[in-house]
């Protein structure tokens, strides 16, 4: 059997046409976009077209897009870059985030807390959504930045960003609003200009582009202090010779994502997946948002009396690739997912949780086949559970 | 000029008529340790080896040789002809190099003649060369009891000069004492046990039990990594990876759960012993330490030991966990061992395992299992991997 790849929230298969274009770019247009000669100018032209494509997908002007090495760098650059001035002057302030951010935001807030910042971490309800009133109450005159992710990587909850943007804009002393949009970019409506988002992080490899490239959207007029010094690339905000093939890949991925909306297909797959499980497997729960309410491409399911890690290994043996929690946390000490804890999932189901995530390459047959295999694996794993 | 490393070996001296055998093993291991480092020659002299290797690799060669069991100390040395002006020149050069570190005010000479035919005797040489050094470096003073620099000059077929001596790994040459089969889990203890027995001259092969899908592919990669980390000490390691899932599932289904770990360990011993016999290993090695976990109490060890017919070496038996961790850090297996992948010892662990098991009861439980069939199938399913430095 051909393996079934259901780990698309971790990363996605690169679109063959993107591979082709990147290959051509790497092989033929290898000039440095900062060079004055023809080859450099040609590389610059490719890069600027990618910038426009990326900006278009955000409904923004191209000069708002700063290319980075990916989502993690974009998150770090956004938050640290916004507060560097303050930190350098030995000042602090109040900052707000949520309890379910990706570590590349969460760890930055921990670090800022150590530097003396006052941190509010908004809790989420059992569906993984923050309380807007709590956000309003948390805002203070000295609140410097609010960082809230759009789509959560483990459970797929979608924060009401438009409403959040309105609250921030109406705050008497308006803080910056940063959004980690890595899981939503190219998949769900995201309009930073319209919603009052000041900074947004995105990544290419979650939408069939290459790894190692992403971008930070910076609203015009927002000041970001560079976090590495060098030749002053990307408007002085992010120095380093431009990763032209990667950037070309990001631009194409953004363009292709806009042309091929995935939400409808993914939602159909997700619904089918859940339907099949309902018919065949007992004692499970869907973690986080309701099926329709959550991101179409992410499904987090907990099975009672099973270890998620064992289940993922078993599925892997059978050619079905899924994750337990997020791919980023799996190599560390196995611990209960902080996201599942934040939504108050029952312990037995947390241990037995897996994340299934879809892409435009998955088919209905694959889903049905996978659930059959899943049924076999859950049954087997339950026979040998530790007591 | 090629640099020379002077190697001293210890216990082998005691081995009487078997000495050539032990020396042969040691030379083979020295050559294996340096095999990819460029043209290297090992010269044997009475009670010493000299390794000649290109100057640019000398530091790397020293690092590798400091992990070869059987060597008690190493000195990077310079070589010259048996000619007094040449010796004087080399002594001054070496001293100049050493003084660049700027931490020395006193020195002494330690000359030796392995060849008594050489013109001057040791005392005369000490006085003469001491004078030469004092002339060249008037700021230096002689201190016979507590010198900052001890300049050694050894007269053999050539003359060797050195100021540094670093400690070797000690022990016996790996392979000189035969071969043992190490039960390698992936935890902190078993690699240390393997390293300790290698130090006593045993060649090490490993047997690892994996229980996919209860254990992950990463757990297996981790054991490969541990083998790689052991090779600087143990030389080549052959690893036998035995499938263990069926055995664990059968025990789980048919035996009382509090006996799981003990019955499982008895199976491991049986399989390891068969593998040992088939590969010419004369002993088993485990990382057990009395009282560390339920399966390592005196009673539990009695129960697992019961299936072993060959000697089982447990070099960690009297060590504390902290002591074991210290050794693991020293031999550089610790960081790998603490990666958090479940191995087959932990995944099926019952909440309340027996700590004072009774052998008769365990034997009765085992009657329900097709021991021969299970062991046979595990052995048939073994995959072999070789690791060398």
Write the layout of secondary structure elements.
The complex is a heterodimer of chains A (387) and B (389).
Chain A: E1 4-5, H1 16-28, H2 38-58, E2 65-68, H3 71-88, E3 94-98, H4 103-114, E4 118-122, H5 132-138, E5 143-147, H6 161-170, E6 176-180, H7 192-195, E7 199-203, E8 214-218, H8 244-259, H9 263-280, E9 284-286, E10 298-303, H10 308-317, E11 320-321, H11 338-342, H12 347-351, E12 353-357, H13 364-383
Parallel strand pairs in A: 1-11, 3-4, 3-5, 5-6, 6-7
Antiparallel strand pairs in A: 2-8, 7-8, 9-10, 10-12
Chain B: E1 3-9, H1 19-33, E2 41-45, E3 48-53, H2 58-65, E4 71-80, H3 84-99, E5 106-113, H4 122-136, E6 141-142, E7 149-155, E8 159-162, E9 166-167, E10 179-183, H5 189-199, E11 203-210, H6 217-234, E12 237-243, H7 245-254, H8 260-278, E13 283-285, H9 298-305, E14 312-313, H10 321-330, H11 334-337, H12 344-347, H13 359-366, H14 371-380, E15 383-387
Parallel strand pairs in B: 5-6, 5-7, 10-11, 10-13, 11-12, 13-14
Antiparallel strand pairs in B: 1-3, 1-4, 2-3, 4-8, 4-9, 7-8, 12-15
Helix pairs in contact in B: 3-4, 5-6, 7-8, 8-9, 8-14
